[in-house]
Design brief:
CATH class of the largest domain: Alpha Beta
Protein name: Aminomuconate-semialdehyde/2-hydroxymuconate-6-semialdehyde dehydrogenase
Largest sheet: 7 strands, mixed
EC number: 1.2.1.32, 1.2.1.85
Keywords: Oxidoreductase
Number of domains: 2
Helix content: 40-55%
Structural class: alpha/beta
Strand order of the largest sheet: 15-16-17-14-13-19-20
CATH architecture of the largest domain: 3-Layer(aba) Sandwich
Radius of gyration: 23 Å
Bound molecules: nicotinamide-adenine-dinucleotide
Number of strands: 23
Distance between the termini: 71 Å
Organism: Pseudomonas synxantha
Shape: globular
């Protein structure tokens, strides 16, 4: 019998479904527990609870009371840090150190940052002259949108979910969260923290299940949902946008990418290798902002490839709970199959396999897990599907370039536009690329440095809308103008 069951959290209470599905640990394919699968009835109950909560104590709280509660939620996550880390590690297979210093602290920070922000952001005000020689004053007020559906991916489960839930609640909305079917644990644990903190029933609801024809689709199509915020694949984003069109509900979409890393010949080689080593391999390459295409200026190309290979050889793929492991498995055996198919495609397209290219060797007790080698290719044409499509694994292709103009063209030649990481010691080049690359975030001599006050989102097919800092308020509130004739 599995030890755990992941139930829905609706109106402050645990709710079961008759249907369940298995949640497995990608490190060894062992059964973590059974997840209850929401049907239309559970989703409807969650949305109705969230609507009712808007009119209950939550809706009449002062900003100070609301934000104090969110600080208590953050403290609750911090107090139960070890439990959150263990849950995230079991669900995703990511190294304990990564979950411990990134996912869980950022999960808590997302509540604090937006609670503090909402208290300090002014709204606009204009005094106008009226035709009869008098005056009127206009001022704006922010109102919550209502019930926000939060549909989440599996790669950074708590971090990306709270990145939406934090600002949504800070702005006075209520939420119904649909975690990824691969990673139900931390959203469920957060429900316990919400109750402990005294967040009123119905403010934070969780429904488990799959996407199409399941909880995800039922939630995003629900007519009483007032806005949908989604992080996941571009194709899913298109489906969700269609669902939200019915009833004219706003969407915030953070979608896929095929991000470029660009290394100029004058870059600090050691720092570029280390930085892009993280960008390619951290979280087994399953970071939306990660790099899958690296372009290196020709004079440095051979040296970079050799140094990057040495970096990959130094990665310790192994048990996420062992302190010296630097890379865990990928999320599932199904996802590994997808990555393997790109490996076969790379070879068929004439790639040179510089490193990896297949299933990683691990001790016998982990043999059933979704292990993969850090993988580096060179020699592919830019037209290869391996260079064009998002793979979302610990893999990259490295190609040489000659001029700045050429590399800008190569980097921008994609339907995606999420992120880029540029390495150079030339300030002019750095700033020129900062504006020439068609992406939502461009890092210079760095990667994944995130100031939560800055705008975050994708260009082109990598998303719609910006979140972070005041930009999150634009999505999670409706700005009203009040015009008073004086
Ligand atoms: P996914 O699109 O398969 O699933 C994401 C969520 O959507 C899951 O909860 C899933 O159940 C749900 N879903 C699937 N089909 C649905 C439907 N028809 N209606 C409603 N909900 C549905 O994505 P994933 O595999 O979980 O995550 C990986 C993807 O997420 C990658 O493409 C990655 O680039 C992207 N991502 C983007 C960002 C960003 O900030 N831009 C961040 C993280 C991940």
């Amino acid at each position: 019998m599995p030890a755990k069951e992941f139930r829905h959290f609706i109106n402050g209470e645990w709710v079961s479904s008759t249907r369940t599905f298995e949640n497995r640990n990608p490190a060894d394919n062992s059964l973590i527990g059974l997840v209850h699968e929401a049907g239309k009835a559970e989703v409807d109950a969650a949305v109705r609870a969230a609507q009712a909560a808007l009119k209950g104590p939550w809706g009449s709280m002062t900003v100070a009371q609301r934000t104090a509660l969110l600080h208590k939620v953050a403290e609750g996550i911090e107090r139960r840090h070890e439990e959150f880390v263990a849950a995230e590690v079991a669900d995703t297979g990511k190294p304990r150190a990564l979950a411990g210093h990134l996912d869980i602290p950022r999960g808590a920070a997302n509540f604090k940052v937006f609670a503090d922000l909402i208290k300090n952001v002014p709204t606009e005000s204009f005094v106008m002259d009226t035709p009869d020689g008098g005056k009127a004053v206009n001022y704006s007020v922010r109102a919550p949108r209502g019930v926000i559906a939060v549909v989440c991916p599996w790669n950074l489960p708590l971090l990306l979910m709270t990145w939406k839930v934090g600002p949504a609640l800070a702005c006075g909305n209520t939420v119904v969260v649909k975690p990824s079917e691969e990673t139900p644990a931390t959203a469920t644990l957060l429900a316990e923290v919400m109750n402990e903190a005294g967040v009123p029933p119905g403010v934070y609801n969780v429904v488990h299940g799959f996407g199409g024809d399941s909880a995800g689709a039922f939630l995003t199509a629900h007519p009483e949902v007032n806005g949908v915020t989604f992080t996941g694949e571009t194709g899913t984003g298109e489906i969700i946008m269609k669902a939200a069109a019915k009833g004219i509900r706003p969407v915030s979409l953070e979608l896929g990418g095929k991000n470029a890393g660009i290394v100029f010949a004058d870059a600090d080689l050691e720092k570029a290798v280390k930085g892009l080593g993280r960008a390619v391999f951290e979280n087994s390459g399953q970071v939306c902002l990660g790099t899958e295409r690296i372009y290196v200026q020709r004079p440095l190309f051979e040296r970079f490839v050799a140094a990057f290979k040495a970096h990959a050889e130094g990665i310790k793929v192994g048990d996420p709970n062992q302190h010296d492991s630097t890379m865990g498995p990928v999320i599932s055996l199904g996802h590994r199959e997808k990555i393997l198919s790109y490996c076969r495609q790379a070879v068929a397209d004439g790639a040179t396999v510089v490193h990896g290219g297949g299933i990683a060797q691990v001790p016998d007790h982990l043999a059933e897990g979704a292990w993969f080698e850090p993988t580096i290719w060179t020699g592919l044409a830019e037209t290869s599907a391996v260079v064009r499509e998002e793979i979302f694994g610990p893999v990259c292709h490295i190609a040489p370039f000659d001029t700045e103009e050429e590399v800008v063209r190569l980097a921008n030649d994609t339907p995606y536009g999420l992120a880029a990481s540029v390495w150079t010691s030339n300030l002019q080049v750095a700033h020129r690329l900062g504006s020439a690359l068609d992406v939502g975030v461009c890092w210079i001599n760095s990667w994944f440095l995130r100031d939560l006050r800055t705008a975050f989102g994708g260009a082109k097919q990598s998303g719609i809308g910006r979140e972070g800092g005041v930009h999150s308020l634009e999505f999670y509130t409706e700005l009203r103008n009040v015009c008073v004739r004086l």
